[in-house]
From TrEMBL:
Species this protein is from: Aspergillus cavernicola
Occurrences of domain Nitroreductase (ranges): 20-194
Native organism taxonomy: Eukaryota, Fungi, Dikarya, Ascomycota, Pezizomycotina
InterPro entries documented for this protein: Frm2/Hbn1 (IPR033877), Nitroreductase (IPR029479), Nitroreductase-like (IPR000415)
PANTHER family recorded: FATTY ACID REPRESSION MUTANT PROTEIN 2-RELATED
Protein name: Nitroreductase-like protein
Length: 219
């Protein structure tokens, strides 16, 4: 997928777009970090603080888990899946051959970022702007997705590999109980990260002509 070279007014723009292009899904991860835990914490905190939200509602809630605390997430997921096997809802063969190795690979990473939405924080704004009340939940998810993307991209820029997972609602109750989180925090996604031991898979791009149009451009 080629593009015409352009000269940006601010060189940081090219750096930002390079980071965007470098962010990929990587599953082969190990429990090592190329940076200090303080750097990771700073990335996540800045993302929570500065990602925009509709009407500045600030509904995203984020939990950073490292090392042994990170492993607990995937022990919870393994137990949940084993429960499905015991209940006959998941074939044991499929669990042993696919699901279990995948969850164990997540556990073998360095950390997990849990992304939540606090829908209770929208009560007042839904009353104040009743005409848009049905829009605020989707808006909150969009803001949360921006946080996920920013953290993922920034971690990639610092040398991590990462992949985004969605194991709700299977693990929600145990996650809230394990870390004593407010009931109003609804889990949306889990970003697994660590030092990459493999590269991303091949990524195919649909024709940009089918996905992008521009009008009014100067010659």
């Amino acid at each position: 997928m080629g593009s015409t070279a352009v000269e940006f007014k601010n060189p940081a723009t090219a750096t930002l777009l390079d980071a965007v292009k470098a962010r990929r899904t990587i599953y082969g991860l190990k429990a090592e970090s190329p940076v200090s835990d303080d750097v990771i914490e700073s990335i996540v905190k800045d993302s929570v603080l500065h990602v925009p939200s509709s009407f500045n509602s600030q509904t995203s809630r984020v939990v950073l888990l490292l090392k042994e605390e990170h492993e607990k997430v995937w022990n919870i997921a393994l137990q949940a899946m084993e429960g499905l096997v015991a209940a006959g809802a998941l074939p044991k063969e499929a669990y042993e051959s696919s699901t279990k190795p995948k969850l164990e690979a997540f556990r073998a990473a360095y950390g997990t970022v849990l992304f939540f939405v606090d829908y209770d924080a929208l009560k007042d704004i839904k009353e104040k702007f009743a005409i848009y009340a049905d829009k605020f939940d989707p808006f909150a998810l969009e803001s949360n997705a921006m946080s996920q993307y920013l953290v993922w991209t920034a971690l990639t820029s610092e040398g991590f590999g990462a992949n985004l997972q969605h194991y709700s609602p299977l693990i929600d109750a145990q996650i809230q109980s394990q870390w004593n989180l407010p009931a109003s925090w609804k889990l949306d996604a889990q970003l697994v990260f660590g030092t990459p031991v493999s590269g991303p898979g091949e990524k195919a791009f649909a024709p940009i002509e089918d996905r992008f149009k521009v009008f009014g451009k100067s010659a």
